[in-house]
Design goal:
Blueprint (H helix, E strand, L loop, with lengths): L32 E5 L2 H10 L3 E7 L4 E9 L2 E7 L4 H13 L4 E10 L8 E10 L12 E3 L2 H13 L5 E8 L7 H9 L2 E5 L2 H11 L2 E11 L14 H16 L2
Parallel strand pairs: 1-4, 1-5, 5-10, 6-8, 8-9
Antiparallel strand pairs: 2-3, 3-4, 5-9, 6-7, 6-10
Helix pairs in contact: 1-6, 2-5, 3-6
Amino acid sequence: MKKKTYPLLEYDAAQEAVFSPADFDIPQVVPEKCVVAFSYDEVEIVAKRLGGVKVDSMDTCTAKLPLYIIDADGEKMGLVCGFLGSAGAAAQLDELIHQGARKFVVCGAAGSLSEAPLGAIVLPDRAVRDEGASFHYLPPSREVEADADMLQAIARSLEGAGVAYTVGKTWTTDGLYRETAEKVALRRSEGCIVVEMEAAALMAAARFRGAKLGYLLYCGDDMSGEQYDHRGFFDDEALRVRVVELAIRCCKEL
């Protein structure tokens, strides 16, 4: 590996790192299919509804994210709240893969860069890599493409449920409070319709590890106008529960 001007560009394709999830006492208890939902309370609600059994928890210095095994109409699958931000989300995915999961459906909120209504469903087909974690899993590039097979499978599942959706590009950024007007304009000009904090990292990590991963986002706050509008999406529990349930449906039909 050669030294670069910027450390983030020093990609190393080695599969083995100095340490990995195998070096920790992490039980291998996750079924092949797993839903990762960026919505803690709603994961708890859905897990309870489906008789979820807590089998593990991703415990860090600042967060404890319980992992449930749920029964989705007779099929066992994992259900876990995603770790906020690209670095933690990628590490969590590595742990879930070590625990046995191979097929993932990820769901969560995104900021709308178009005039899409609150709750509109977006299936990202690619992500702008404006974060750090993805560069440790794939060589440097501006974007990472979604898994085409998973995108098509999720689209078919939503169509079967009569749920409308839009396919488009997402902007993944680590800078939650640095989404400036100029950056928003630039991302919109290159085709981004939503913004979030994990998709590029999870797409890259899944590809590097040979796992299958698809994404289902819903439009939360609105960043498309002159004034920011949170639209009260923080308080819309029913919407978030619905999205988690859609993700479970999509995962079951993989």
